[in-house]
Design a protein that fits this description.
Length: about 240
């Protein structure tokens, strides 16, 4: 499944580098790890803090034959794949926060950033970016603007290379099979790990906010918010979610 593995000491952003390769037509089946990113990207324009050897910074380039609708729910399914990789190392208390964070003990352990390229109608290319906190020191961690946790404080002694291999072992088959099986194959597993199931939440878009109870996700991965006896659906790109 993997055509090329690239290991870097330092890059601006592994997602950025793989997007360039996708545009040049040579990014499919390529995985890139970087020890440090100087301009790591997070969702919604945020920076992803990636100091030297503090985490696992991974991007995978994948080309799909088909339109962008094939990718519905993919970022949530990636969360399930990461949870499965972490379970192999007996990392406790792993949960998923919609749309695509991995949480542990009420704090963020890893984030997923999907970036698209291609014409998005007949063929679409995606770069799946994953940042996982392994051991962040105080000086770099000070720049993180949300509650975070790292692997070494929940389960010490995990071999980073083995975890990286396990992540690839879970992610590559997911990408290969996703056009056939879609989010339906991952929904039950996602719901079983839902950090906010049944909890009061607040959803925020650029100019509006909604509060209600999070009651899971539908077959496309949209969040279901229950408010005043009604269900409203939200898609990942539109809003951010917080505990109310
Ligand atoms: C988020 O939770 O906001 C998503 C964070 C994604 C970070 C990873 S690190 C590897 C890849 N390269 C990037 O520049 N970003 C992603």
């Amino acid at each position: 499944l993997l055509r090329e593995l690239i290991l870097c000491d330092e890059v601006d952003s592994t997602n950025g580098q793989l997007l360039l390769r996708m545009e040049e037509g040579c990014g499919h089946g390529v995985a890139m790890f970087a020890e440090r990113q100087t301009a790591g990207r997070g969702r919604r324009g945020r920076t992803w803090v990636s100091p030297f050897s503090g985490g696992i910074n991974l991007s995978i380039g994948w080309q799909f034959n088909g339109g962008v609708q094939l990718l519905e729910g993919l970022s949530l399914a990636v969360g399930v794949a990461l949870a499965r990789a972490l379970a192999e190392f007996e990392v406790p208390d792993i949960r998923l926060k919609w749309p695509n964070d991995v949480w542990c003990r009420e704090r963020k352990l890893a984030g997923v950033l999907l970036e698209l390229s291609g014409d998005l109608t007949d063929r679409c290319a995606v770069v799946v970016g994953i940042g996982l906190n392994v051991g962040l020191r105080g000086d770099s961690a000070a720049a993180i603007d949300q509650p975070w946790i790292d692997l070494q404080s929940v389960r010490a002694g995990i071999d980073r290379n083995r975890l990286a291999a396990s992540m690839l072992n879970h992610l590559l088959p997911l990408l290969r099979d996703y056009p056939e099986c879609g989010f339906g194959a991952y929904r039950e597993a996602w719901l079983a790990l839902d950090q906010f199931a049944g909890r009061p939440v607040r959803l925020q878009s650029a100019n509006q906010a909604w509060t209600g109870t999070a009651v899971g996700v539908d077959m496309s991965g949209a969040l279901i918010l229950e408010a005043d006896g009604e269900h409203k659906l939200f898609h990942g790109g539109e809003v951010s979610l917080r505990e109310a």
